[in-house]
Q: What sequence folds into this?
């Protein structure tokens, strides 16, 4: 439990407090028209906001006084915490997911998901080996991605009639 | 024999070729997601929720139920053969099962897990058949105050009792409640927290939250923290049990069932407690050489008991889901969401209004258990091959299915951005050991509990004492208090 852990956990507590603030701000606009119940549509929002605020204070207190309680790492003879987080791999996977969101309606489900698969797999490979990957692994990932995405697309659109975006109107790509 | 004729009706519905096919595909898919690390039954059902818009209710509930308990069979395979258990439900199985596999008895461990799951699943299904209608009949008489207290109990146990820390469990619960607030208020129809976005009037999709928290967060966690970690796989031996294995397993299965079944019936959530309890009982009852095997070569009772307890719990958990509409776990919460997609609200009326659906579902549990026994005993070698899928392809593939689930529900690319955001939230929660189950249960149960609370207060003409004046709701409130206080007292003394 180093210094940075304290900062990180305090940040989590602050985030919870922030959420409580947002909820409370929103709750001000909700009517309190109660009817027979004595509590209206704004009761639970205020309750949740207040609950989160109290929890945030407790979490902040825990973070300041020795860290969150009962963390699994605290139990001895556990596996040592994993090495440094692989932010580069994380960036690849984030890119994969966001690119997918950006492209899916324009280039269609199959191509967009193939690309997403390849980028995400690339990130995971990098996390495993820590080294940049060869061109060959890119090609194999693209091929595997296509082999998964295309049948998934056909299965869901043809058999289950769920609408997913295609590149063409043919229904096959 | 009213129950019997209705069950026969159920078998007639569930036994049509098309429904048998759904059950089979569900069981097979369930086993696969149980075996694969990084994806569980809750995620799988959530990803497939879009099919509720096309497939009829009976077929898709049979399908989802197949995934639900199929995953329980598959989960034990992973926990016995890998050094990391696939899901919390099979954590206890892993303790002895892994040791058995290390000393070359993987086959016996797999066999006792599969047969034990079958025995417990079938006994528990008989209990569902016999007791669910009775509970439903009784539950009709419950009023909003009682319902609210029952839901409060479910929310409390799911967040405060399970998991490491009450505070983080409650934080997760309140985040779930906050997500559940988004959308139209159930009683007055007023929009809350929609920010003027019309899509949000119906609330946030369960698919997004469940798939984001479980699948996407899992993939992000894998890429960020688990890069270099390696897994060793134990060798599979012939799947058979010796005479002594049978003699030791049968009583353990029955004890496990007896321990597990009651835990599913009460809204106290989770399989952790019954499986650990069963493990402790088996260890306590073991004598001589058998006792010496615990923690060393691996004792077969330590696999048989918890595995049976696990399956008994997940099966009887359908009783509160079907008769009260109260989910006690991730997966049952998502099953409740599936019912809601059809405009069906599980509860005591379900047995009268949707009788054919309910009985077909129960009949499919019997059929599915037999299918799973066949799928898991002779074919276990096939499933084990799934463990060979390399991680990059596995997680990247899961992302494709996550896209299908998230996009297929509402055809909105924005949902995919939201999915990523929820995935990041899940990653942060996992990093700081916040449990995720309370988020999903809170999100689904929150609006229902709120409606019951306000109806209850209307009955009491605005007075909160209405909860204290009715004996049953007072009793339930006492249970809630006990559940909150007791573990703390025990901890202090321990």
A:
């Amino acid at each position: 439990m180093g210094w940075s852990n304290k900062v990180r956990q305090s940040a989590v507590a602050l985030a919870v407090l922030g959420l409580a603030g947002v909820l409370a701000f929103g709750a001000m606009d909700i009517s309190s028209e109660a009817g027979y119940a004595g509590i209206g549509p704004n009761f639970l929002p205020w309750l949740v906001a207040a609950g989160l605020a109290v929890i945030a204070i407790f979490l902040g207190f825990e973070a300041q006084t020795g860290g969150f309680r009962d963390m699994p790492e605290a139990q001895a003879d556990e596996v040592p915490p994993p090495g440094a987080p692989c932010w580069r791999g994380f960036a690849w996977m984030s890119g994969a997911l966001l690119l997918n969101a950006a492209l899916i309606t324009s280039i269609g489900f199959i191509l967009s998901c193939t690309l997403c698969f390849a980028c995400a797999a690339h990130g995971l490979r990098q996390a495993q080996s820590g080294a940049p990957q060869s061109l060959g692994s890119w090609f194999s990932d693209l091929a595997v991605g296509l082999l998964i995405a295309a049948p998934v697309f056909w299965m869901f659109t043809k058999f289950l009639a769920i609408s997913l975006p295609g590149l063409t109107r043919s229904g096959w790509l | 024999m009213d129950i019997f004729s209705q069950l026969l009706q159920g078998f007639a519905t569930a036994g049509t070729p098309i429904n048998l096919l759904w059950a089979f595909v569900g069981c097979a898919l369930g086993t696969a997601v149980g075996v694969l690390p990084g994806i569980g039954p809750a995620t799988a059902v959530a990803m497939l929720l879009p099919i509720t818009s096309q497939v009829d209710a009976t077929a898709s509930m049979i399908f989802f139920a197949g995934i639900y308990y199929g995953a329980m069979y598959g989960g034990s395979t992973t926990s016995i053969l890998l050094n990391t258990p696939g899901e919390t439900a099979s954590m206890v199985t892993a303790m002895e099962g892994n040791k058995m596999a290390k000393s070359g008895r993987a086959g016996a461990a797999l066999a006792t897990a599969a047969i034990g799951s079958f025995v417990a699943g079938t006994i528990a299904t008989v209990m569902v058949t016999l007791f669910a209608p009775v509970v439903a009949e009784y539950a009709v008489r419950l009023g909003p105050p009682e319902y609210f207290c029952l839901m409060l109990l479910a929310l409390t146990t799911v967040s405060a009792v399970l998991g490491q820390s009450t505070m983080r469990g409650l934080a997760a619960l309140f985040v779930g409640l906050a997500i559940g607030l988004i959308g139209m208020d159930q009683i007055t129809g007023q929009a809350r927290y929609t920010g003027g976005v019309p899509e949000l009037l119906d609330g946030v999709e369960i698919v997004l939250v469940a798939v984001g928290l479980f699948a996407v967060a899992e993939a992000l966690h894998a890429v960020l923290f688990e890069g270099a970690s390696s897994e060793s796989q134990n060798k599979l031996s012939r799947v058979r049990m010796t005479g002594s294995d049978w003699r030791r397993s049968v009583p353990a299965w029955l004890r496990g069932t007896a321990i597990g079944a009651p835990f599913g019936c009460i809204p106290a959530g989770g399989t952790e407690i019954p499986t650990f309890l069963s493990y402790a009982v088996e260890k306590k009852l073991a004598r001589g050489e058998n006792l010496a095997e615990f923690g060393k070569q691996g004792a077969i009772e330590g696999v048989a008991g918890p595995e049976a307890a696990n399956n008994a719990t997940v099966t009887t958990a359908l009783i509160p889901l079907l008769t009260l509409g109260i989910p006690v776990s991730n997966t049952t919460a998502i099953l409740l969401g599936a019912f809601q997609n059809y405009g069906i609200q599980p509860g005591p009326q379900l047995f009268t209004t949707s009788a054919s659906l309910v009985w077909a579902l129960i009949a499919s549990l019997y059929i599915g258990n037999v299918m799973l026994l066949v799928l898991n005993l002779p074919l276990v070698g096939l499933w084990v091959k799934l463990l060979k899928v390399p991680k990059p392809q596995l997680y990247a593939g899961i992302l494709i299915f996550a896209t299908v689930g998230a996009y297929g529900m509402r055809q909105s690319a924005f949902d995919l951005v939201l999915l990523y955001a929820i995935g990041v939230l899940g990653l942060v929660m996992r990093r700081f050991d916040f449990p995720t189950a309370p988020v999903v249960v809170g999100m689904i149960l929150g609006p229902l509990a709120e409606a019951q609370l306000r109806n209850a207060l209307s009955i009491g003409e605005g007075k909160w004492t209405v909860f204290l004046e009715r004996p049953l709701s007072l009793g339930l409130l006492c249970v809630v208090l006990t559940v909150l206080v007791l573990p703390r007292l025990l901890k202090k003394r321990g």
